[in-house]
Design goal:
By secondary structure, the chain is of the alpha+beta class. It has one domain (17-234): Nucleoside Triphosphate Pyrophosphohydrolase. It has helices at residues 34-42, 109-121, 173-176, 220-234, and strands spanning 17-20, 63-72, 78-84, 95-96, 99-101, 128-133, 137-138, 143-152, 165-172, 183-189, 192-198, 201-206, 213-216. The strands form 3 sheets. Strands 2, 3, 4, 5, 6, 7, 8 and 9 form an 8-stranded mixed beta sheet that branches. The chain is globular and about 50 Å long. The N and C termini lie far apart (44 Å).
Length: 235
C-alpha cells in the first residue's frame, strides 16, 4: 500500500531563510586551482559529508545514478550546471548537474556520469579529466547518486538535449565554496520537517527579453552535494 504522497508543488524561493552560514570560512582560492584539486583527490583528508540522505517522500524503488560536477578550467574555475526542462517526471525545472540513472551497460559510476553528460549536454569525454568521487547522496525520490568531480578543458561546444535541458550555464566555483552564500531552509509536510540548502546565484548575463540579471536558484540535492564538496575541500 502506498503510504506516502508526493510533495505538493511549491516555489522553494517562497520558503523563509532560517539562516546564512557566513560564520564559516570559504575555501581558500589557492585550494580551488586545478593542481590543488588533483592533489586533494589523490590524498583525501579525513572528513565527513554533511548531507547524505534526504527524507523519503515516494515509494519509488531505489535506483542507482551518477552526476558529473564539471569544473571548467577558465581563468577562474567554474561549475557547469543545467536547468532541467519542466516536462521531466522528477526534479523538473530545477538546477542540476548533468547526470542520470545508471544503465546495465555502464562500467561504473564514472562511466554513467560521463555518458549522461555527453547525452544531456554534448560534453565530449575527451575534454574531461576525472578527479574522483564524493560519497553517495540519496534523494527523497530514492535515487542513490554518486557525484563524480572532474576538470574540463575549455574549447568544447555543447549540444543540450532539448527534451531534458532547458539551459546550460556556469557559476564561479569560488562563489559556491563560500558558505556566506549558503542559506538554510525548513518546510513541514504531513508532520515531517524537511531541511535543505539553497545557493542563489545572480547570473550577470542579461536576459534579452527581461533586460535584467537572472537569478539561478540552486537548491535541494544539487546544493547538498555542493555543500559536501565544500566540506571535502575545506577539511
Amino acid at each position: 500500500m502506498n503510504s506516502s504522497r508526493p510533495l505538493p508543488k511549491f516555489d522553494p524561493r517562497s520558503i523563509p531563510v532560517l539562516g546564512i552560514d557566513d560564520h564559516l570560512a570559504g575555501v581558500a582560492l589557492e585550494r580551488l586551482l586545478p593542481q590543488a584539486l588533483r592533489d586533494r583527490f589523490r590524498h583525501p583528508p579525513i572528513w565527513m559529508p554533511e548531507h547524505s540522505v534526504e527524507k523519503k517522500f515516494t515509494d519509488r524503488q531505489p535506483a542507482l545514478a551518477a552526476v558529473l560536477l564539471p569544473l571548467v578550467m577558465r581563468d577562474e574555475l567554474t561549475l557547469l550546471l543545467t536547468e532541467r526542462t519542466d516536462n521531466l517526471s522528477t526534479h523538473s525545472g530545477q538546477i542540476a548537474f548533468p547526470g542520470g540513472r545508471t544503465d546495465e551497460s555502464d562500467h561504473d559510476a564514472v562511466d554513467t556520469a560521463l555518458r549522461e553528460a555527453e547525452e544531456e549536454i554534448g560534453l565530449p569525454r575527451g575534454h574531461v579529466e576525472v578527479l574522483g568521487t564524493l560519497p553517495t547522496y540519496v534523494t527523497g525520490t530514492a535515487f542513490i547518486i554518486t557525484p563524480v568531480v572532474a576538470l574540463v578543458k575549455p574549447g568544447f561546444e555543447l549540444q543540450p538535449n532539448p527534451g531534458e535541458v532547458a539551459d546550460v550555464f556556469e557559476v564561479p566555483l569560488g562563489y559556491l565554496m563560500n558558505p556566506a552564500h549558503h542559506r538554510r531552509h525548513e518546510f513541514e509536510f504531513e508532520g515531517v520537517i524537511r531541511q535543505w540548502l539553497s545557493m542563489p546565484y545572480t547570473d550577470p548575463v542579461l536576459q534579452v527579453d527581461a533586460g535584467q540579471a537572472r537569478e539561478r536558484y540552486i537548491w535541494g540535492a544539487t546544493a547538498g552535494m555542493l555543500r559536501n564538496l565544500y566540506r571535502f575541500l575545506s577539511a
